[in-house]
Amino acid sequence: MNQSALTLVAPVAKGKLDLLRAVLKNRQEDVKAALKSLGTVHYARFVIIDEATAGNGEVFPAQLAFSSNFDGDVEQHMIDLSVKLSASNLLDDIYNNCDGYAASDRVGYFKKVRHKEAAFYVGAPGRTLQIIKQEKELRNYILTLIDSESWTGKSSQAIHQHIQKTVLANPDFAWAKEKVKTPSIRWVGLILFALVLVALLPVIILWAVYMQVFHERKDKPLGYTPNQVSDEQLNKMQKDEDFYFQNQFSQIIDMKSGKARLITVNGLYLFARMLIKLAFIKGKLMGIPTIHFARWVMVNNSKRMLFFSNFDGSWTQYLGDFIDKSGWGLTGIFSNTVNFPRAFMLVFKGAYDEQKFLAWARYTQIQTQIWYAYDTSQSIKNVNNNTKIRNELSESLTEKEAKIFLARI
Amino acid sequence: MVDQKDVQGFILRAYGKMRYTRYLLLHIDDAASAKQWLTKMSGRVTDGTHYPETTCINLAVTSPGLRVLGMHEDNIRSFGREFREGMATEHRQRMLSDFGDSDPHIWNWGGYPKGDNTDMNNIHLMLLLFAKDEDLINQYYAEVTAELATSGLSIIKTFETNMLDSNKENFGFTDGISQPIIKDIGDDETNTHNVVATGEFLLGYKNEYKVFPDSPFIVCEQGDMNLLPTDEAGSGLKDIGRNGSYLVFRQMEQHVEKFWEFMNEKTKATDGSVDENESIKLASKMVGRWPSGAPLAKYPDKDPFPGGMSEDDNFGYKDDADGLNCPFGSHMRRNNPRDTFEDNKPKLSLSLTKKHRIIRRGRPYGEPFAGNPNNHKPIGEVGLHFMCFNSDISKQYEFVQHTWANFPRFQNLCSDPDPINGALENANNECVQNFTIQAEPVNKCIANLKSFVTIRGGAYFFFPSINAISYLGTL
Question: Residue B441 and residue A241: Cβ atoms within 8 Å?
Fold first, then answer.
């Protein structure tokens, strides 16, 4: 079963912002319990996007964003949400503070305020909550099994066979007989895609030159270093961070004005979507090995960009990874938004200006009022490793393969 | 090239010959006299060009110290956030995992404000004295303290350290071997894998990202501005940080008995007796080096210099990519993964780890003691006065402690905190704390790790350049 994304962005009704804030604060635990009861939600969040004024004076009124990463399709998920979250008026208490909400047609409202993701990344495609849970139990079971016996003198193959026999004889793990399907890198698609890119290369280069000459040179980067970001902003973010070895990141940024920027960012979204589909299916997004889910969503008539992610480790590690592993890709996308460190020909400089990039990331980050995570005890690497254990368990392995299998535990 | 005359020597040298130490935490009672004293000190502190034979002296200042000296709030604001806030904050507790017995609320010094003179707001300066023998340190200490009394400074706490000639810390392992080579200070740079950009340690220089790390500038003119250099990054402001660094100081009590009892218990012979070799081997697997200091990456089976000493630092892990020699979760490998960080190629891995290096200057305290399986009961409290230098506390010290030491999912591990300094004492039932020894045919899991280290105090300091010390005297 696939993992999908839902993003709702609803306008907050005039004068209702404080009320909404209070509901999200007071009913935080209710929301989490309701989300858990769905049995399909990996991560979810409610984020208030405060009123803001763009550089050209345009005012963006306050909005409430909801996002979820879940198993199955969106239609069913919206129905599930409307049912499970409506208990004890939870949904109504929240969305009564938003324009246009009617308790009589909750799903209809969701559809109205739904925003499609411009790009959506899944760190462990195909792994449902249930699979993740089962495979975690499987790993722990095998770990105990290994610890309870002496294996000296036995070949890896023999040990694997013994584990296989013991586990599969246990009715609790009957499901492990079947392998779980995980996508593999689509080389044909990737080569075709590369060919298209090569064919388009002159156009892309011309476009990058055009962007440099007519846009990037006139950019006005934020120019802050990390220490110049206000303490108030840092405190606001850090007070919610590092309770687990997983964290979330929410960000709202204004697009730079002009069609060229929109064309560029859409081109890069397409590029990202292709790579996510063809290549980034093994738990790494552009080389970053810690992301469970991430998404880009255009809001306010494509005048602003919303970015949400759920990741392992600390903020410093995560943002450092951005620079170290995929500075070019992020520069390509984010340099189309205001305040980003000065880019050169779309993918150069930008994020590589470490101090300015980190400052920009903190500056544009916004508070997440409610963050729900089903399981914070596993990294995305753990999840993917557990799947390999499961899939290799029922196979007949060579000595070399069995060695690799045992090293995973 | 770095002007080493302007750099306080302790950043560049460990003062290995100066085995006797007094660290003095000072409170400024009278700012005017303290400033006069600082002016005098600027001519006296040991700089980076000297390899003194008898005594050395260096000094550090906290953010409350800068305030008491009269630094303008806007200028203090330009110092790094971690330094300004101090080590005891709610968020930082989570980052550093300072809970239970290590909670800053009950630290002996440097913790949350509690109104007495040992809390974070009352520690203003730290003076570090070094001498080559005991008589000299006593004499030096007497001289210096006599002067403090008339300089508006009072002593909050004095720490002594006791270095064994073998450079062993209290668990019994040779310590402080691996250090980065700072670029452009005239050290031998042939081992390029270990040469790290100046700006990772000294403010005012470019770091491994080839940009200038945040350095404190004087944004609101005060004092004798001519004493300070202008910001190299081009803001036009005076840079009080240049040639200085941030010093992290944490007092870590080491539970030597508990440490060796744990190793003995986990490796005991079938008749219940202590299996000395196996006990040492387990402890070494956790440390990443043998008691002599010889790295497991090179000597996986037994200590090549039992009872001796090795300072071998010329190795990587690329030939041990499966962790069979040195476990991924061992203290040393995870705190500096060298050429095998995550699944990156060795070259990329090295360039990534270089962004998170620290210069360590720890020294043991308490009874000079090096434990082993059969001798593990030191008299009184023993531990490590852990110190390190870095230019960005968040990207370096805190990153290493959080993301490499405490993070139980480091690399591909699942529930393995650093077995030496990352395990929680009172972990709740959901928190599994293991140590995995990669092995063939199967990995060995050492379950239910205990905490062998308790934090007793700590603070972040600014370690000013010598010009900056002069400048502080003119505030």
Answer: no
CB pairs under 8 A between A and B: 98
Residue B253 and residue B458: Cα distance in Å, rounded?
A: 12
Is the CB of B442 less than 8 angstroms away from the CB of A151? yes
Tell me the Ramachandran region of residue A350: left when phi exceeds 0, alpha when psi lies from -120 to 50, beta otherwise: left
Q: pLDDT averaged over chain A?
A: 95
CA A72 to chain B, closest CA, distance in angstroms equals 28
Closest alpha carbon within chain A to B209: A354
* φ, ψ at B450 (rounded to 5°): -110, 165
The pTM of the full predicted model, rounded to 2 decimals, is 0.96
Q: Among A231, A314, A324, select the one facing B352 at the smallest CB separation.
A: A324
The count of C-alpha atoms lying within 13 angstroms of the C-alpha of A388, restricted to the half-sphere facing its C-beta, is 18
Q: Cβ–Cβ of A378/B414 closer than 8 Å?
A: yes
Q: Are A293 and A42 in contact (CB under 8 A)?
A: yes
CA distance A67 to A76: 15
Picking from A109, A89, A74, A97, the residue whose alpha carbon sits closest to that of residue A3 is A74
- C-alpha dihedral sign at B411, B413, B415, B419: negative
> Within 10 Å of residue A150's Cβ, how many Cβ atoms?
7
Q: Report in angstroms the alpha-carbon separations of B377 from A181, B143, B291, B450.
A: 56, 35, 17, 17
pLDDT in tens, A226-248: 999 999 999 999 999 999 999 99
Interface of A with B in 330-389 (CB under 8 A): 352-356, 377-379, 381-382, 385
- Residues in a beta bridge with A63: A11, A49
Q: What is the pLDDT of residues B312-370, one digit of tens each?
A: 999 999 999 999 999 999 999 999 999 999 889 999 999 999 999 999 999 999 999 99
CB contact under 8 A, A151 and B207: no
What are the distances in angstroms from CA A403 to CA A162, A177, B302, B375? 14, 20, 24, 39
Q: Where do we find the tokens 């919610």?
A: A240
The average pLDDT across A90-96 equals 96
Which residues in chain A are closer than 8 Å to B322, comparing Cβ atoms?
A: 407
| 3-class DSSP state of B182 | strand
Question: What interface predicted TM-score (ipTM) does this complex get?
Answer: 0.94
